Amino acid sequence: MKRPVRFAVFLLAGLALAAALAFFVSPQASGEPDGLNRVAIEEGFAETEADHALADTPTADYGVEAVDDERLSTGLAGVIGVAVTFAAAGGLMLVVRRAAGRSSGDPDRSAAPG
What we know:
It is a single chain. This protein is mainly α. The chain has one domain (3-105). The chain has helices spanning 3-25, 35-43, 70-104, 107-110. The longest helix has 35 residues, at 70-104.
């Protein structure tokens, strides 16, 4: 198997594993307050909490707004998070790779993949 094919298989397998974990494991997470929420409750200032700027987005609060089933909603939000993270990391890698290719003067590295 050629190196690019092995890399693509490895990448897709990792993406599939991350998506599967996000979908099946994230609904198992505890609904109990954690970290700062727990401290705010214990110290008595939880009632001063305010919504953040992204509270009205479709995937706020670890769920997909349009899905009524809580477990499915949480799993889908996890998969969306994996996809967005993968796309952002992939985009950043392309930008860095092209910038590195231009600075080194290597025409093979600065050319569009294909």
